[in-house]
Every structure is written in C-alpha cells, then in structure tokens.
Amino acid sequence: MFRNQYDSDVTVxxxxxxxxxxxxxxxxxxxxxxxxxIKSETHxxxxxxxxxxxxxxxxxxxxxxxxxxxxxxxxxxEIDTHSGVSxxxxxxxxxxxxxxxxxxxxxxxxxxxxxVPIKKLAESMQLKLQANTxxxxxxxxxxxxxxxGYDKDGAHIIQTDPSAEVVSMHGTSIGAxxxxxxxxxxxxxxxxxxxxxxxxIVHALLALRDTLPAExxxxxxxxxxxxxxxxxxxxLLDDAQVAVHLNQVSTHPRxxxxxxxxxxxxxx
Amino acid sequence: MFRNQYDSDVTVxxxxxxxxxxxxxxxxxxxxxxxxxIKSETHxxxxxxxxxxxxxxxxxxxxxxxxxxxxxxxxxxEIDTHSGVSxxxxxxxxxxxxxxxxxxxxxxxxxxxxxVPIKKLAESMQLKLQANTxxxxxxxxxxxxxxxGYDKDGAHIIQTDPSAEVVSMHGTSIGAxxxxxxxxxxxxxxxxxxxxxxxxIVHALLALRDTLPAExxxxxxxxxxxxxxxxxxxxLLDDAQVAVHLNQVSTHPRxxxxxxxxxxxxxx
Amino acid sequence: MFRNQYDSDVTVxxxxxxxxxxxxxxxxxxxxxxxxxIKSETHxxxxxxxxxxxxxxxxxxxxxxxxxxxxxxxxxxEIDTHSGVSxxxxxxxxxxxxxxxxxxxxxxxxxxxxxVPIKKLAESMQLKLQANTxxxxxxxxxxxxxxxGYDKDGAHIIQTDPSAEVVSMHGTSIGAxxxxxxxxxxxxxxxxxxxxxxxxIVHALLALRDTLPAExxxxxxxxxxxxxxxxxxxxLLDDAQVAVHLNQVSTHPRxxxxxxxxxxxxxx
Amino acid sequence: MFRNQYDSDVTVxxxxxxxxxxxxxxxxxxxxxxxxxIKSETHxxxxxxxxxxxxxxxxxxxxxxxxxxxxxxxxxxEIDTHSGVSxxxxxxxxxxxxxxxxxxxxxxxxxxxxxVPIKKLAESMQLKLQANTxxxxxxxxxxxxxxxGYDKDGAHIIQTDPSAEVVSMHGTSIGAxxxxxxxxxxxxxxxxxxxxxxxxIVHALLALRDTLPAExxxxxxxxxxxxxxxxxxxxLLDDAQVAVHLNQVSTHPRxxxxxxxxxxxxxx
Amino acid sequence: MFRNQYDSDVTVxxxxxxxxxxxxxxxxxxxxxxxxxIKSETHxxxxxxxxxxxxxxxxxxxxxxxxxxxxxxxxxxEIDTHSGVSxxxxxxxxxxxxxxxxxxxxxxxxxxxxxVPIKKLAESMQLKLQANTxxxxxxxxxxxxxxxGYDKDGAHIIQTDPSAEVVSMHGTSIGAxxxxxxxxxxxxxxxxxxxxxxxxIVHALLALRDTLPAExxxxxxxxxxxxxxxxxxxxLLDDAQVAVHLNQVSTHPRxxxxxxxxxxxxxx
Amino acid sequence: MFRNQYDSDVTVxxxxxxxxxxxxxxxxxxxxxxxxxIKSETHxxxxxxxxxxxxxxxxxxxxxxxxxxxxxxxxxxEIDTHSGVSxxxxxxxxxxxxxxxxxxxxxxxxxxxxxVPIKKLAESMQLKLQANTxxxxxxxxxxxxxxxGYDKDGAHIIQTDPSAEVVSMHGTSIGAxxxxxxxxxxxxxxxxxxxxxxxxIVHALLALRDTLPAExxxxxxxxxxxxxxxxxxxxLLDDAQVAVHLNQVSTHPRxxxxxxxxxxxxxx
Amino acid sequence: MFRNQYDSDVTVxxxxxxxxxxxxxxxxxxxxxxxxxIKSETHxxxxxxxxxxxxxxxxxxxxxxxxxxxxxxxxxxEIDTHSGVSxxxxxxxxxxxxxxxxxxxxxxxxxxxxxVPIKKLAESMQLKLQANTxxxxxxxxxxxxxxxGYDKDGAHIIQTDPSAEVVSMHGTSIGAxxxxxxxxxxxxxxxxxxxxxxxxIVHALLALRDTLPAExxxxxxxxxxxxxxxxxxxxLLDDAQVAVHLNQVSTHPRxxxxxxxxxxxxxx
Lengths: 268, 268, 268, 268, 268, 268, 268
Hints:
Proteasome_sua/b (chains A, B, C, D, E, F, G), homoheptamer, globular, Proteasome_asu_N (chains A, B, C, D, E, F, G), Ntn_hydrolases_N (chains A, B, C, D, E, F, G), Glutamine Phosphoribosylpyrophosphate, subunit 1, domain 1, five-stranded antiparallel beta sheet
C-alpha cells in the first residue's frame, strides 16, 4: 500500500476521496483471528478462533506460553439473553464495544421491559463507530464484530467494521484468511435457512476450519462456539460441547488447498 | 488533480479561494454507486444501485461474497411517511445523515402535529452540512443525498452534496458514472411533469441503467426503488415489485455506447 | 499570487501585516457569479445571475444539466419585509449568513415590535464576519453579500466581504467580472438618486449585463431581481416580471467590448 | 524584514526576545490611512483620511469606484458623549474595538450614572489588547486607535497599538506616512496647549496633509474631523464644516518635499 | 525496530494496522524488573524483583547507592484484603494504577458491603487502560500489572499490559528476561493447581530466579512475595519470611544456561 | 545564541534540561530600559528610565517624537499605599502584572482590613508567573518587575523575572545595561541599610546613571522615582522633586568608562 | 545525549519505551545546586547549598551580584510543624510543589485535627508529579525534592524526581555533583540510625561539602540546614546556628580529590 500525506489524521480526506486512517484500522481487523457467523430461519451461530494473532505480534513473548498458561482468552461475549458477539482485530477495542452493547441492552430493558430489537442495537453500533471516523481526537476502532441475535423478526447476523459499515448478513466471516471461509459460505448459502442448530454449527466450523493453515486444526482449546435462537437464549458452549461438534466436523475431509485471502500474519 | 499545501485541513482556503477538503469529499460522493431522482407534478421517485462500490475498495475481501451472503444492503431509507432518501458515497456518513433527517421529521411532528415541509428539511440539512465545511475538528460528510418528498407544495427532489449545496431539482443523478444518467434526464425532462408514477419509475430506471457498464444490467437484486406522492406515503418497493418495473425497462433497447462521466472505480 | 508560509492559518499575520486566509476567501467571493445593487432616494434594488460558477468548478458534472433540471437556484433571499440579500461566492456560506440575518430580524421584531434598522443589521453582520478572521478553528466566510433595505433613514445598499468590511454604498457590484458593472455604475451614479423603481432596475440590469461575456445575455432564467422601498415590501420578482424588465434592457445596445476585472473562471 | 522560525504563533518568543506576530500586526497598522490627534487644555481633536488603503490592497477591485459609489467610509466613531476614536489599520478590527469601547462606556454609565473616566477606558483597552498578544488561538488586533476624550482631568489623546501599548499623548499620528505628521507635531507642540478649538483643528489638518503625496490634497470627501472638549460633547463634523476648516488650511502653503516614514503602500 | 511516520501519536494507525505508541509502551513494560504470578486452586502468589532497572536508566546516578540507602522500593502493593498487584515497567505509572484499583475496591465495598469480584476489578482496569490507547492527549500506561486475588470464584492471576489486554492466567511472568520464567512455568504448569501455598511460592521464586543473570541470585533484599487465598487475606511477606522461602529455593540447583527473552537492559 | 528544535513551545524541555521559551522571554526583559531598587532599614526606593527602548524597536516610527509629544510614559506604578513596582521589558505585560498586584492588594484589604504583607504579594506573583512557564497555550511574561514595599517586617525590594524567580534583595537592577548598575550597588551595598531616604534615592540614581551611555544623562523627563517607607506611603515623585534629587546626583562625577552588561539595543 | 524525533512531547513514547521529556526534566534537576538528606531513628536532616546554579545560567547577569545583594535565596522550606523540604533544580517549580505540600498539610489538619502522615504526603506528591508525565499540555516538573519529616512511624527522608519516582531513603543527595555526596553516605550509612541530631547534621554537611569543587567551601552564607524529629518541630537554622555546625565540619579534613557525578555546570 503506497504512502501519502493524507493518512495521519482521521478527519482528513485524500484527494481520491478516501479516509486512510479508516482503511488502516481495517488492516487491524484483518489481522485478528477469524470468526464466522451464519443464521438459519430460527438460529444464529458465531464461531471463533481463540488464538488472537494480532496482539501476539505486539506482545511477542506471550505467544508460545499462552495456550497453556492462560485460563481462557475470550473471543465471544454474551451481550444479552438474546444476543452475543464475536470479535476480530484489536481485542481491547472489541471488549469496549462489547461492553457498549451490553449497556445498550440493559438500558433498553430498563426503559421498555423487553430485550432490545437487534436492528436498534445495530443502529446504536453504527452511530458509535461512525463518530470515530469523523471527529478529531479519536482513532477509528480497530476491530470487526459479528452480532448474533434473535428477536421477533427472527435470527440475525450483523457484521460491523471500522468504517462503520453495519450490514445484516445470511453468513459471513471476518479476520485473518477469512476469504477461505467466505468461499465455503457462498457455496453452501442455500442450505443455511432450513438447517437445524446442529447443522448450522457444523457449517460454521467447516468455514472456520478453512481459515487455518493446512498443518493446523480446530480443537476444543482454540475454538469458541456461541448460539442463540427461538426459545433458546444465547449460549457460549463449554469445552465438552465444543468437542462434540468438532467430532462431527472431523468426519468432513478437508479439501481446500490452503487458506486464502485476508491478511498474512504481520511481520515485526 | 494536482497536489498542494492547502488541502490538509477543512478550515483552510487555498490561494485560489478553494476548500480542497470539500472537493476531496466530493470525490467520495462520485465513487458511490449511482442514484437517480425525478419528479412529476404528483410524485417523486428515487432509484439506486444497491452495490456500493466505494467501501468495497476499502474492504476488498467482501466484494465477491456480498451479493449472495448479505440480506440486503440498503441504499434508500424512509425518512417519514412523506419522504425518503437515497445515498451515494460513504454509506456510514449517509446513514448518519438519514438518521438526522428522521429526527428532524419526528421533532417537527411532535411540535406541529404534521409532517415537516420538505423545504424546512432541506434547510436543516444545509445547516448540518455547512458546519462541517467551516469548523475545525470535523471532516465534511463524504456523501451526496437525494431527498424525495411530497407536501402541500407538491413533489420534491432535493439534491445535497458535501459542499453543503442543497438544490431543488426536476431530475438529477449523483454517484459513479452519473453523467450518463443526467444525459438521459436532460433529453427527457419535458416528459416528467405529466408522467404517471409508473412512467416516472421507468424513466428513473432507464437513467440508472445508463450508468452501468455495457456488460452489466439492472436486476431485482441490485436495484432499489422508492416512491412518494399525492395520497401515497413513501414506499420502498419489494423485490417482486422491482422486477415488474424492470420488465418494462427491458423492453427499451439500450443504446448508449457505455456509461460516461463521474469517477472511475477507485484504484488501490 | 505568490505562495508563502503565513497563509495556512487565519490567526497568523504575514510579515507584511496581511492575513492571507482572508485574502484567499476574497478569491472565493470574486469567483461567484456577479450581483449588482443600487439605490435611489426611495428604493434599493439587487440583481444577480442565478448561475453560480464557483461550485460548478467543484461539482463539474452538474454543470451542463443544471439549468434545465433544477427548479431554481436562488441567489437572492428575502430577509424581512424591509430587506433582502444577494450572494456572490460560496453559496452554502451565503445561505448561512442569510439565515443569520433572518434570525437577527426576527429577534429584533420580537424585542421591539418593529423591523430592525438596516444599520443595526449591518453591525451584527460585521461582528459575525470579523470573528471568523481572528479566532482559531474557523475559516473566514467565502462570500460577499449585498443587503438591500429600506427603513426610516431611507434606502440602503450594504456591501460585505470576507474581511468583515461592511460599507454603505450608492451602488456596487461584486463577483466575477464585476469591474465592468462598477464601471457602468460610476458613469451613471448621478442618475440613481432620482430614478423611479423601474429605472433603477434597468440600471442594475445594464450593469449586470456588462459582467457577461459578449456571447451571453441576460434571460428570465439566469437573472434574479429583488426590490424594496418606500411603502413596498421586499419583492423577489417572478420570471414574468423579470422578462418585462429585460425587454427594456434589450433596447439598450451593448457597447462594452467585453467584461473586465474580477476573477477569471477558476481552472481545475 | 528577514524571515525566521519564531513568527508563526503569537505565543512564541524569538531568541532575541521578540514577538514577531505582534510586529507583523503593527505592519497592518502602518498601512492604514493616517490619522492625527492633538489636544489643548480644553479640547481634543482627531482627524483622519477616509480612504482606507489597507484593504484596498486586498479587495483591489473596489479601489477606483469607492469614493464615488460609497456613501461614506467611516474612520472616526463616537464612543460616548465625551469621547471618540479614529482608526488606522484593519478597519474591521478597529470597529470591533470601537464597539468594545462603546460597551465599556455604557456599562460604566449604568453602574455609576456618569461618563467613564478616560483613564479607565484606556485601562480596559490595554487589557483587551494584551490578551491577544499572549494567549493561543487569537491573533493580535491589526489596528492602531486614537481616543480623543474630555473628562474631569481635562482633554486626552490616547494612542494604542497592536502590542497593547496604551499611551497618553499631547499629539500624535499613526498610519501610512505618519512620520511626516509627527514631524509637524513636534515642531508645533508648544502651541497646542493654548490653542482654540479652531486652531487645534487646523494644526491637526496641517499635520494630516503632510502625510499625503505631493499630488494629493485634503478634501471634504476624504477628510474626517472629530472634536470633543469642555462643555462640548464629541462631534463628528459634517462635510460643510469640514470644508470650512479646509479653507483655512489651504491658506497655509505646503512646504514639505513629500511625506516620509510609515509604510509604503503594500505591493501585491 | 524500524522507524516510521505513524508512531508519534497514539491516535494514529499505521498502514499495517498497528498502533506504534502502544507498542513502544510495551517496551517500557519489558524493561521493568521481572515479576511472576501463579495460582493453585486455593491461592494466588505474586513475586517480584525489587530492583527497578527501568528508571535506573533514566536516573542513572541513583543506581549504585539505592540498594543500601533506600529503605525499600516497593514492587508489590496490597489492593484490598483479597487482592494485591505486582508491577513491571514505569513504576510511577504502576502506582497510579495500583491506587486506581484501591479506589475501585473501596467504592465497591461502600456500595455492596463486600469485596469486589476480581472479574469486575479486571473489567475496570481494561476500561482504564484502553482509553489511553484511543483518545488524544494521553499516552498509554508504560507498565504491566499482575493482579493476585481470591474471591467466591477461587484464586485469580490477572495479567494486564499497555495495549489494554487483560487476561486471566494460570501462571505468567512479565518484565525483563521474563521468557525464562515463562519457560519454567510452562514446564510445571500441571503441578500448580494442587500445590500448597508454600509449594506455590517456591515455584514462583524458581521461575523468578530464572530471569536473573547467572552471576546474580535472589535475596531477601531484592525479592518481594505476596500471597492471598482461601481464608487468608493478602499478605506481603516480611524479610524474615522471604528468607525462609529462599532457603527452600536454594536447594533447587540452577540449571538454565542464562536468562532469555524480554528486553536487554536499555542502553543510554 | 544558537538555534535548536526545543525552543518553539514553552512546555518542552531541551535535552540539556532548559526551557528555551523562558530564556527568550528573559531577553525581552534585558532589552527594557533599566530600573534600580534598593532599600534601607526603613525605606525602599525604585528608580527607572522612562524611555522604553524595547517596543521602540517594534514601533520604530514613534521613537523620535515620543519624548516631546507624549504626556508621560509610566514605568513605575503604585500598587497600594505600602507598595509600588517598576518594570523592565515588554510594557504591556508589565502593566498586566501591575494590575494583577493591585487586585491582590485590594482583595487582601477586603478580607483582612489591612495591607497585604509583601511576602504574600511575592508568593502570589510567583504562582502567576510560574503557570505561564509550564502550561500550554500561553507564553511566559516578557518582563522583570521590582516591587518596593514596606510592612511590619520592614522595607522590601522584591525582584521577579520571566522564569518565575521571585527573590528578596538589598539592592538590584534589571534591564538594558543593568550590569553597570549592579556593579555600583555591590560596591556600596554596606551603606544602604543606614541611609536616609534622600541618600537612598541618590544611591539608586547613581546606579541608574551608570546604565546610560556616556553621552546621555538623567533628566526629570526621563527619570522616575518611587519611594515607600516607615510612616510614608508609596510616593511617585513629580518632576520638580525628581529635579531636586538629580541636582544632588550631578555633584557626583561620572567615572565609569561606559555602561556594561545586559543586552545591546536590538537590531531590526 | 543523542537527539531523536520522540522528545518533543511529553505524551509520546520513543521506540525504546522511553519518555524523553521526562529525562530532560531530570537534567534540570541534576543542574540544581546539591542538597542532602539523612535520617536517624529519631530525626531527619536536610541541608542544601543556597547558590542556585541552574537559573543563573538563564539569568547570567545576576550571577556575580546575588550573594551580596540578595537578602536570602531559600532552598529549604517548612511545610508543616513536622516536615520540611529542600529543592534541587528549577526553583520556581520547586516552590510551586512546596506550596502544594503546604496546602496538603493544612487540608489534612482541617479534616483530621492532626499532622498528615508523611506517607500520605508522599502519595499526594506522586500523583501530582505523575500527571505531568502523562497528559498533554503540561511539562514535567524540572525539580527534585527531599522531604524531611517525623510522624508516628518515625523519621522520614522522601526523595522525589521529575519521573514521579517517590522513594523513602535512609540518606540521599540530588543535584549537581551529588554523586560525591552519595559516595560519602554509602560509606557511612550504618552510623546514621543511632546518630544524635548534631552528629546527623555533621554527616549531612560532610556529604554536602563533597559536592563542592576543591577551591570552594561551605559557609553560613551558602549553606541551609533544616531538622525535624521526635519532640522537635521542623527548624530552619539561622546563620549563627549554621556557623556552629560548620565549625565542627571544618575539623574533618577534606580528602576527596574533587566532586564527582551529577551534571557539569551547563554551558551557554
């Protein structure tokens, strides 16, 4: 990516009508470990790799030890009983936004005695993200977020990015090498709407597996699964439950030549 | 466009009396997918391409998947029962402005128990846009908006741009390759005033089709249509209704050699 | 105009005791389409070209279509029953200032139950304009304004510019090629005081015509006329009325070799 | 004047202990048309050239027309019944300061039911001017002001400049080519104290005449005269009164070889 | 580490999607003397080297004298009866954060009459740290902190760093040459859960010893030990208690060839 | 004095631990005309040259005329009945500080019904001056001030400078060529304590005279004398009184070869 | 010390994890005249050189005269009856901090009717100092301070520096050439605890003497002594008392070859 004079301040347009700081924040999102979200008529599923390879590049010396020494590195958060989020990019930014959404949910509950409609949640998110792309003294959030939710309008997967794009999706993936996951999703998009919750989880895991290099694999240690749907509140599965679903996934041979797209792991 | 020293801050004039940051924001508008608005004596119509090719250039990796995976990418928003907007440029900026207009409408309803006159809405918009061209710490909005409305003064198409120009039009088009659409509009402007709503939609779609490269075409998937008029509140047509109108359009042979004007798709 | 290091901030003096940002804003005013104001003992007239050639240079692609597609591009605004303004330069700045004057007028009416004296209006304007030449974080307004008014002290033509100069004039012209108009005014200044309203309008139009290139002419489409005077509230003439006055103008042969002075149309 | 790195911000000292921005603002004052103030035991007189040659250099195209087309260009303002000011430099700055002094006067009258002592007025002015030489985000005022006043301590001529120097004078002149006027004043300073009001005006006009190039002369059109004194409130003479005094002046042959000192008219 | 243009302001993203100022603050953390934290089912232990080799590099001239002249240089602070922290990096930043945590604890006690859950404490810390990575006018904290705590959910070791990463760990080490300590921890992680408090302290000290150069050793003078657990409030051991534990450590031969990882002591 | 990169902002330290902006402000003080202060057991005297040669360099064109045309240029101000100040440097800064001290005095009188102790006055001054050396957006005051006062602790001469040094002195001199005055003071310091008020004034004038070039001399026109002491409120002597003391001074032959030290008059 | 691009703003980290502005402020501390503090079981003593050689370098022309002309230049301040401070570095910064501590003491007395614990005083100081190392718009304090105090926990010597390090010491010295003093302190540290107040003062003076060049010596004029302890409030000794202690010191031959460490006197 070429360098220029219009990329040092978020409030400045380049002569080509671009906001470079926003684009650079997107780079941070692309380097987070991948996450996948898909929905059926009745359920929404988000799955994520727990290994966060973004700040590993900053705090290099944690890299090897962490899987064994850390209790758990959360990539999926419950927001309310009817929604949860997964994060790709700068984790500390992601947590700030997750907490923002939690506050929005509890404010709505306080005011209206019911869960916030997912559409309203998406609108609040869009306002929050956009302000950091326009006003001086703040940087754009360096994180993409998938919101899985279920309300009276059905299941939702909402995708946000640092440019304040907030889009409703049938299925999507963001983060490192997520193009491979999206390729899987496009090929199978027609099957999602009528999938059972269990089938939906397997689809999501198969897409997520495609983001891994050939020599790595999903495991209960590096995989998080969250699901929400009709009559079932948001549930972040425990390791045993994750293992059950991974068993099913392992029966599907891995055919892709290797993960594509997204960003390569960052070099110091 | 040549580079200079007066383009890094919105509050600075160049020696030629220009505001470069405003001009660069106009570039962002020119790269949004095209939208067209026209009006008759009794109705106002806005049509838009759903594919937003601006931020695709930022979030490249979404580009191929989106049409199939996303539920819908809105380019047209209802503002009130008597008005709607279409957007060309930075979508997240456009949504902020759409929400601003929605708030203006509901404030007016609260105060006066009736819909806001479109002229008042245009004035509020002008104030909002101008402030971001004059004061430090904010960038101009990188988006153009067409407001379609109907009130006691009849039908309205209002065009706004990042320079805070807010103009009432018989017909207009903004966004990528919109010059081709405007050429169509100029040739047919005399027919609009007495057109039926259906004829008006066809005119708008024919103009919009002229913004597409020769190898692409309008479809229910990539086309949005909004209409408002006498005794008919603002209506964002569903896919089936869009398809009906596109059928009519397809009976008109496409004669232009190719789309002209506007900005070429941005190169990374 | 040579470049230097003292022109990037409105709050900075150059070693020669100049405020370059103010001078650059004056350039924006010079590139607006021309407007003329003159007064007799009993009336004040402002006339203006509707084509705004300043932002056309920014939003090039509107240029050809606008005259036919736009409903009307206002260059003259009523401020109160006893006053109106015409604008040369950055139209969105001009509208902000017109609205500011409207607010001043209605505040005065609220407080004193009578129209604001034009002199008080001019003082408010001077304060508003000067602040943007002295304090950090705002740019000077890029627009010149002519105020036509009538109060107990008689008729008034007030001229303002980006440097916060606010001067009472017998007659004046600002905007592109306005020197030609001022030449006409100087030659005929002695006739204004006793002119009838109709004669005053013809003088103003003749001066305005002199700002046009030889191959262009005034028309009901491109000309706005506002008049205010003793016992006649401010009136922005409609196209038919404008046509009547233009007929009279056309009986005066055009003798000037071509428009002079002001700024040449800006090159991109 | 040489260029350096310490002149771009008013709050920065140069290594030589100078405030360059203040010095540059003084340049603006030097380029304003000249004004002269002198006092006797009982009266204070200020005279000024109406032609403002500073912003003429900015708004060049007004230059020729103005004398004939403009009603009047004020250089002298009444502040209260016992005081008035004349201005040299950036007129819009001068008017802001004149209005500031008017407000100070009316505040004092409100609080104490009597005119403000001139000494208090000078102190307020000093505070106002100094702040703009010390704090960030404002530029120094680009104007010099002469205050003529009469109170229980007698007649006063107060001179202010952009550096916040506020000095009581027997006689003084500021503005373009004012050195010639000061030379006259120094030669005749002993005569002022006992002069009659009429004699005082003639002295002031003779000093002012010395600031003009040999080929120009004072006229009722380009000369303003203000006087205040014992038992006579501040009076800005009308053209007829000015003409009477100029007649007396014309009986004094002009002997100086040409105006000296101050700044040459600025070159674009 | 290479230099670039995106590292002078915390609010700016580099084209690679990195926040250089955050990375540089991590360098400050890496240069602090090492600290180690581990937990069993019932207890959490933090140990630290008292010698702070970071600001010694700033205030060089203190270096030799300090161990003998200073009473004690605290590296471990009690936060509440159920928690304590150890610090690696810029000590004055660390103390500010320790005091922040103390205030959080007492606020919670005031509101709820019980100790704050460690998880809530970690969330407050994350918010506090993240804000300094995103908003203008503050730098990121240059310190890493280990929180040892015990509450109804058991024992906790929380690790924070300047990027606002806040992670729950079984065992960890931060600061100069901490890679050697983490290597020890990884090899022995399985033994921690069932360790007695005494065994836990010995593990922590053995890991800490591995961060020392071969020619240095732990002593009661340079070693701090803090422990908290079930039915035992946070206790910062005195020198005699430290000596007892060090005796046990000395029975374990030192086998590592030398400390690895982390930062080398900074060169002036 | 050499140039470097650490002198453009008061809040920045140089690598050598210096504040260049403070040092440059000291330069302004050194270029003010000299002032001298000394005290006996019972009295404190300040004398000053009225010619301010600092801003003369800015407003060059006033230089010759001022002595004859200006009423008086104050360099010494009464602060309260028991104290006064003299100023060297930027006069407008000095007057701001003099007014600040006057306000401090009257606040104290209001609160305690007695004059403020000189020590308290000095502390207020120190706080005021220091803030402008540490916080962004203001420049240090470019002036040195001598405070002469008498209170229950006896007579005081307090010296302040732009670095916020506030020191109690037996005798001192600041301003242009003040080294010569200090040389005189050092030679005679033993005589001050028991001097009569008249002798004290003569000592001060002899020291002041030593700051003048050989060809200049003290006169009632260019010399100010202020004195305060036991049972005698602060008194700024009138011209006749000054002349009496100067007569005494003229009986002392001038022996110094020429003034030394301080700054040479600044070159444009 | 090498120059780089990360030292112009206190809020910026260098790539090596350093805060250059803090380090430069430490340089200012190193150039202040030396001060020494030591404590026994029952008493704390601070001694200091009155000659402040830091701002002498700024205000060079005071240098020679000051010792004879100034009444006294305080380097030691009483803070409360149980504590006092000595200062090394920028004196005006030091006085601001001394006043801050005095306010802290009186606030505590007001709230709790007893003297503030020295530990609390140190914590307040740490907060105050740290803020100026982290937030934009202020520079770090350029001063080191020794606090001598006595409370229910015994005698205290607290050392602070610009990096906000606040450490409790048995004995210490800061300022120019203070390494020589610390060398003395280290050699004799074992004797302090049981010393009588008189012995403690002699130790402190011997350490202070070692900071002087061989050709200079301590005298009642250049030496300040403060002491506080059990049943004896803080006492700043008068010249006679100082002389008595210096007599004792003179019986100890001076053996050091010359002062070491700290900064050399700064070169202009």
